[in-house]
Design goal:
Layout (H helix, E strand, L loop, with lengths): L2 H15 L7 H9 L3 H13 L3 E4 L6 E4 L3 E8 L6 H13 L4 H21 L4 E8 L3 E8 L4 H8 L5 H10 L13 H8 L2 E6 L2 E6 L6 E4 L9 E8 L6 H7 L10 E5 L13 H8 L7 E5 L8 H14 L4 E5 L3 H16 L1
Parallel strand pairs: 10-11, 11-12
Antiparallel strand pairs: 1-2, 3-4, 4-5, 5-9, 6-7, 6-9, 7-8
Helix pairs in contact: 1-2, 1-3, 2-3, 4-5, 5-8, 6-7, 10-11, 11-12
Length: about 350
């Protein structure tokens, strides 16, 4: 190990141990690494300058504390004793202490939901978790070595391919274990964070508030030991509130998750156009679980007559209890949708 790597290791240990050694951190680290207290103090000064540590007092009365910047990561075996609330409480909650309540709540929700998904669904042996807090943002990573979320959903739900599994997941209420899960965790987690990515076996779903669209992309993760990787980011000055996000997907005067927004653009594979009834049926899969379905046509320049007819006439007639609402349509799309709705009215 070269001096640079050794220095990083020493500073990581200081940050990890300072909570338990606020008054003797220099002596503690000096003993661990067989270096002088003066050498440790040089590392401590750097950590204070970078915001990882803070201090009060002077001389023998000096005490060190975690600074506003914090991080922690660890690899855990997925044993029967491993729980999402336990790993949050015992290993990671300190990273989030002192944050505004709305940010703390979002982080705790996303952290525990994604870790619970790994525990219950990954069939893996290990989970790696990392949480980073700097002056501007919070980032959380949850990575497992299981089968892979899209591959498992495709297999158990008998879907055509893994992209279809991802698309169904983006609607919400998709679960491979309906007796124990509602299928809402990933959906709402992707909406409460400013950025959310989930990658698995060559496919990535990306939701970013800074961009107009959600994306399905080819993943850069090729390591066969990685089953699913989740990345979440929230800015520290965000005013987002979990309850507000939940309310956005509840129907009028309802307290349940009965509305979904379907980004129609995600139903397109490559450069294909949305023209066929089979494409529409893929879009319509499982929406009977919702009472209000908003079809977001943002980024869709045109659709075919058969595609529109299958959704807004055929499906609408066969499911009168479901409200289908088109949104963000360009004139070409609006024309086709209005034509399908008019045909329903005439029939």
């Amino acid at each position: 190990m070269n001096n640079r790597e050794r220095g990083k290791k020493i500073r990581r240990q200081i940050v990890r141990d300072v909570r338990h050694h606020p008054t003797d951190i220099s002596k503690h680290i000096a003993n661990l690494f067989s270096i002088t207290p003066q050498a440790v103090n040089n590392h401590i000064k750097r950590l204070e300058q970078e915001g990882w540590l803070s201090s009060t007092g002077s001389g023998k009365g000096k005490r060190y504390f975690l600074g506003d910047s914090r991080k922690h990561n660890s690899l855990f075996p997925l044993t029967n004793e491993f729980t999402e609330d336990g790993v949050w409480r015992d290993h990671f909650s300190f990273v989030f202490d002192g944050l505004p309540e709305n940010i703390f709540d979002i982080c705790q929700y996303g952290f525990t939901e994604m870790v619970n998904n790994v525990i219950d669904h990954s069939s893996g042996e290990h989970i790696f978790i990392s949480a980073i807090r700097d002056q501007e943002k919070i980032m959380i990573f949850v990575i497992d070595d299981g089968e892979g979320i899209f591959r498992k959903i495709k297999r158990l739900c008998e879907l055509s391919d893994e992209r279809q599994a991802l698309f169904e997941l983006s609607k919400g209420k998709l679960t491979t274990d309906p007796d124990n899960h509602t299928g809402e965790g990933i959906f709402f987690t992707s909406r409460v964070f400013g950025q959310f990515e989930i990658e698995s076996r060559g496919i990535k779903f990306s939701h970013d508030d800074n961009f107009e669209f959600d994306y399905i992309l080819e993943s850069n993760i090729t390591d066969s030991e990685v089953g699913t990787a989740v990345y979440m980011l929230i800015n520290r000055d965000s005013e987002r509130n979990i309850q507000t996000v939940f309310d956005d997907f509840a129907g009028p005067d309802e307290f349940q998750f009965n509305k979904t927004v379907i980004p129609v653009r995600l139903a397109q594979y490559g450069t294909e156009k949305l023209v066929s009834r089979s494409q529409a049926k893929r879009l319509l899969a499982r929406i009977e679980r919702f009472q209000y379905v908003i079809f977001d046509f943002e980024g869709v320049s045109a659709i075919g007559q058969a595609f529109a007819d299958e959704i807004f006439r055929v499906y609408a007639q066969n499911h009168p209890g479901i409200v289908l609402l088109p949104d963000n349509m360009v004139p070409n799309v609006e024309k086709m949708v209005k034509r399908a709705i008019s045909s329903k009215a005439v029939n």
